[in-house]
Amino acid sequence: MASAAPPSPPEAPPEEVGERVVTVRRRPWLLSGWRRWIIAFFLAVAGIIAIGLLTLESPIGHRFVVDRIAKYAPASGLRVQVGRFEGSLFGEAVLRDVRFSDPQGLFMRVPVIEVDWRPLHWFTSGLDVRKLILRRGTLYRGPRLKPGEPDAPILPDFDIRVDRFEFDRLTVARGMMGEQRRIDLVAKADIRKGRALLETRAQLGGQDRLYGKLDSEPKADRFDIALDYNAPKGGFLATLMGAEESIAAKVNGAGRYADWRGRALVTQPKGAIADLAIGNRAGLYSVAGQVHPAGFVSGVAARATGPTVVVNGEGRLASSVLTGKLATKGQGAEVKAAGAIDLAGNAFRALKLDAVLRDPELLGKDLRLEDARLAATVDGPFRRLTIDHRITARRFVSGKVRLDNPVQQGRIVRADTRWTLPLALTTGRIVTGNSIIDPRLTKGSAKGAVVVVGNHVHADELVIGAPGVGAALALDGSLQTGDSRLTGPVAARGLALSNLGLADADLKLTLGFGKSPWNLAAAVRGRMTSVSNPTLTTLAGTGIKFGGNVAVGGNRPMVLRGVTVNGSALSLMLDGRLAADGSTTVAGSGRHTRFGAFTVDARLADDGPHAVLVFARPLPAAGLRDVRVALAPIPQGFRIETSGQSTLGPFAGTLGLFSPPGGPTRIEIEKLDVWKTAVSGTLVLGSGGADGKLALTGGGLDGTITLAPRGGGQGFAVALVADHASFGGTTPIAIGMARIDATGTIVDGHTSVTGKAYAEGVQQGSLFIGRLSANAALTDGSGRITASLSGRRGSRFNLNLLADLAPDRYAVLAGGDFAGQTIAMPRRAVLTRAGEGWELAPTELDYAGGRLQAQGTIGPMTTLNLRMADMPLALVDVLTADLGLGGKASGEVTWRTVQDGPPSADARLEIKGLSRSGLVLTSRPVDLSLVAKLEPNVLEARATVRDGSAALGRLQGRVEGLAPSGTLWDRLAAGRLFAQLRYSGPADALWRLAALETFDLTGPINVAADFTGTLADPEIRGSLASTGLRLQSAQTGTDIQAITARGTFAGSRLQISSFAGRAGSGQVSGSGQVDLSNMGNGRGPGIDIRLAARNAALIARDDMAATVTGPLRIVSDGMGGTIAGRLSVESARWNLGRATAATELPNVKTREINPRADVAPVTAPAAPWRYLVDASAPSHVDVRGLGLDSEWSADLKIRGTTASPSIVGRAELVRGGYDFAGKRFDLTRGLITFDGDSPPDPRLDIAATADMTGLTATVTVTGTASKPTISFTSVPSLPEEELLSRLLFGSSITQISAPEAVQIGAALAALRGGGGLDPINKLRTAIGLDRLRILGADAATGRGTSVAVGKYIGRRLYAEVVSDGRGYNATQLEYRVTRWLSIIATISSIGRQGADVKVSKDY
Asked: Which of 180, 897, 1004, 1373 is the most buried (most CB within 10 A)?
C-alpha cells in the first residue's frame, strides 16, 4: 500500500526494485464529476467556433463565402458575384471584380470594393461599417429589381453605423443616357444612442444635383432636414428613376428639435407638384399644404383627387410607431384617418378611416353613388389585418338599374394575399327598367362572403332575395379589369306576364357588372300556371311549358334567345326582342300538328302586322320545301310574296289578296314563276267556289288550268302540252314531249277525276324513260290507273303497271322485261292506311332468277325492309345506264326514317361475282360481303372481298358526327371518319371496277391504309406496295412490265416514293402523289406524277411507235390535267396508210334535226387534258408507207389538249427514198413544218430525184399534209406523160405496152388528185413488197418486158430481183454505207456480174 504522503524523489533510481510504487493525486473539485463534462462541452464548442473562424479566414473560407454570396437570391432579384476576396472577413477586406445583376442581367460592375466592418458587433450594437468604397465602377443601366420581402419592416429596429459609403469615380455608360458621365457620391449614417444622422453628397455631372441630410437628436435639442434634388429630363437621376419629365425637390427649414419649421416644395417645369409646410414641435411632426397630382394618376384616382388635394396632418414617431391623424380632400372624395402605424412591426393600431364621396360619378359615368360614406377601423399586421366597415348611400344607379338606400357592413379580414369581404347588403326599392319585374322589387338583400386573392375576386355562395324572388349566386371577378360576374340559380313564383297570364319560372343567372354597363343573362324554364289569353290557348293548346334564354342590361332592350313554347298542339322555338319603346320583333321555328315544320319572323308596326313564314316540307308528295310566304299590309288587303323549291324546281311569285268591303275576295297573280314556266291569272273566290283561269307558258310548257263553279261545287280542267320542257329541281327533270288532259269536280267533299297522259323522253337524274302512257279514272279516291313505260331506245326495257286505288288501300301490279329477261311480281304491292301512314304488305319482284321482297310502313315514321336473293346487279342499268355492273346480290336491307329526321338503316349483303364491264375490259369477278349500320349520327360498315375461297381484302369503317340535315352524301361528308383498308390481291379486280379503260393495270398489289378526317378530305396513313405490275394501253400500245411500286399514305395523299418498270428494252421510273380529297360530283383524284424514261418504248401502235428518254410529268386537279415533258426520241416509226385502223373515231360536230324524244342524251365528255411536251429526235425517225422509205430528225413542241392537240416545230430529212408507180426516187430534200394548227396540218417541202440514161427526174411535194401538191420536173424538160414513160419504162410513150400505159394512167390520176386504177401498187401492198415495177424490153441485154420486185432487209441493205419469165434473171444488192456512199453488186443470167460504188451528193 502507498503511504499517505509521497516520499521525496531519490537522486537516482535504484538498480533493483522489488515492488512498484503508485502515486495518487486528488483532482480539484471543479474537474470532477459532471462539471468536467460541461466544461469539456463548452471548450469543444469554443474550439469548433475557433476552427470555423480560422477556416473562414483561410483561402478556402474566402472562396466559400464568395460562392455563398453568388448563390444568395433575395426576393428583389439582386445577384452579386465576387471575383476574388482579399483580407479579413472580420475587418478590412478588398473585393475585386464585383458584378451586380438584376433579373434582366448585369447592370453594374465594380473592379474594386474596399470594406472595413465589424460583423461581430451585430450581436451587441447592430450594423457597424467603418467604410464601404466602390472604386472605378461602371453603371450600364438602372437596376430593375422586384418588390422585396413584404414582411420586412419599413423602419429598421436595430442600430446602424456607416462611417463612410462612397462611389468613387463611378462611370455611367453611354448606352444608359446617351453620354458618358462620372459620378462621385459620399454618404454616412449613424442611427444609435438616440440620434439619427443621415447625410448624402453627390457630384452627378450636368445639372443633376443630390444633397440630403437628416439630423435628429431629441436629447441634444437638435433637428435639421435638408434636401436639394434636381433631376432634369434626360439626366442621370431622371434616367435612373425612369422619369419622363424634369422634377426638382427642395426641403429646408430652421429651428431646433423643440420647434423646427420648414417647407417642402416639389416642382416640374409646368408647375408645382407639392407645396407643403412641415414642422416638428418636440416630436410632434406636422404637414399641411397642397398636392397637385395631375399627370401622376389616372382613371378613378384622377377623378378622386382632381387637380388639387388639400393635405393636413400631424403625428409622433416613437420606437418606430407613427401615431397621429391625416386629412385629405380632393375633388371627388374626402378621406380622414386617425390612429397608429407600427413601421417596424408593419401593423396598424386601431386606425380609423372616414371617407365621403363628393363626386357621385367617381366610379364611372354608368355607375352613380349618391351621398355615399365609408366608416372603417383598420387593425392588425399589414398581412393579417381586419377592417370593420359600414358603407351607406342614398342611391346607387347603373344604367336604368337603381337601388335605394343601400347599406353594406361587416368585417374585412386579410390573411397574406387573401382578403375575405363579408357581404351583408340591404337595399330599398330596386328599379331595373323592366315593367314585368320592377313592381315586385320593393326591397332586397344579399349575404355571403367575397374572397379576393391577388386580382381575383370570388364568392362561393351569395344569397340574394327580393319579394317572390330568391337566388344563390357565385361571384367571379377581376380587380385588374374592373369587371365581375354573378352566376347561379334564381327562382320566381307568380310572375305576371302582360296579356298572357301568370307563370312560375326557374332561372340560371349570369349577371355582369363593373366598368362595363351591367348585363344580365338567364336560362329560363317554367310553365304557365294560368292563361288569360284565349288566342294562346287556340294556337298552343293546353299544358304550356316554356324555356329559353333572356338577356337584358343597362340601356339595352330585353332579348329572348332559344325560347321554347311547347303545348299539346305546338312546338315552337323563338328569338325575340322587346324594346323600351314598345316595339316587338319575333323570329323562330316550330312544328304544328296541322301545318308541319315552319319558321316565323314577325314584327308589329304602325301599319299592321308583318310576317314571314317558311314551311320546310308542307307537301312532301310534290317535293315542296323551303316554302316562304311573306305577308305585308296594303290598302284593302295584303300583299303575299312566296318562293320555294319543288320537284319541278324553284318557284317565286307575288300575289295580291284583296277583300274590299261589300265585294268578293279575289287573288291576283302578279307574277308566279316555276323554274322557267310562268303562271298568270286571276281567281275570284265566291260562295260557289273559285272562278278563273291560270295560264302556264314558257320553259317548254304551254297550257291552262281552269277553275269554275260546277254542279254545286268546284270544277277544274287541266290541258297541258310539253315540248322539250325542263325543270330544275334538286334532280333536274326533262320531258321531250308530253300531253296531259284531266277534268274533275269537287262537290260536298266528293271528288271525280279523269285524265290521260302520254310522254316521251322523260328524264330525272340518271333515270330515263323512253315512253310513258297512263290513264286514270278516280271517284272519291277510288278507281284504276294503268300505265306502261319503256326505257331508252335500244335498252330492251318495258314495264306495265296496274294500280287499283281506294281511299284506304292502294294495290299495284307490275310486269315487263329487261335485256331479254322477264320482270314479274308474284305478289303485288298493297298499301293500306294505318293511322297517319301506310303499311306495305309483303311484296315480291322476280328478275332473271333473282328475287326481291319488300315490306314495311310509309308515313311520319317509315320502315322499309328489303330482302334479296340472287338479284342480278344488271338491273341497276334500268336506273343508271352504262354502269355495266355484274354479279348477284343476296341479303337484307332495313331503312327507317322519322319525318324531317335523318334516316337510319341496317344492311347485310352478299354479292357473288361482282364485276364491271366496259367497252374493252371486264373486271375480274370477286365476292363481296357487306355489313353496315346507319344511325342518325353514325355509320358503321365492314366489308370483305374474296376470290373464291381466298380472302383478298377487308374494309371496316366508322363515320360519326353526321350532319343533322342534307343529302346522305352531304351528311356523311361532314362526319368524322375512322376506317381501315387491307387488300392483297390482283390489281385488275379493283382497277377495272373503276371502268378506266384508257389504261389497264394487272398484277399483284398490297394496300394497307388507315383513314381519319372526313370523306371529303380524308387523312390517310398507310402504305402501297407491288412487284410485278403490268400497265397496258390499247390506244397507245404502251406495255410497261415488271413494275415495282412503293407508296405511303399521308393525309389525303398517296405519296408514291418509287415507281419503276420495263418498257420494251428500256426503263421507266418515277415518283409522285395522288390527292384523294375533294373527290365526287364529277371530280376525280388530284395527280402529280414525275417520270423518267430511259430508252423506253412508250408508244407501240400498228401505225406508229416511239422509244424515248427524258422526264415526264403528269398533273391533274381531278377535272382535267396536263402532260408535260422534255423528251429525246431514241427511235420512232410511222407507217403511213395504217392510221385509220389505229386511231379513234373522229368527233364530228353535227346538229341533229327533229331527234326522237325517246333517245337518251349523250353523256358530256370529260374535260380534256393539256399537252406541254417538247420532243427532240436527232435521227432514227423512220417514215414508211405510201411510197416513202425514209429516216428523219425532228424538234417538236406538242401543245393544245387531247381533244384539240397542236404541234409546233419541224422535221428534217436524214435519208430515204420514194417509190412512185414502181420507180424508186432518192429523197434529196425533206422539211416538214408544224405551225401549231389543230388538228395538226404541217407544211411539206420534199424533193426526190431519179437518174436514168440521158434523163434526171425530180418529184417535188409541197403544200400541206391535208392538201399536198406533187409536181415532176426533168432535165431535159419533158411533158408529164413522156417523163413518166421514160422514168418507168425507159422508152417513149409511143413505144410502151398496154399494161405500162395503165400504170402511167394511174400515176397521172394520183398526181392530179384522183384515185385512178393502180393495180401495180395494190399488188405490191398486198404481197408486202417495198418496190414492184414493170420494166420495158432491152435488146442490148436480151431482156424482154420484165417484172422487178424489191425488199429492204434492215435499214441499209436492199435486194431486187428482175425476171422476164423467158430465161432472163438478174439480182441486185445495194448496201448503203453512209448517206452519200453505197456499194452495189449485180448478178445476171447472161453471165454479167459486177460491183460498183455509188456516190451521191445534193447540191
From this structure: 897
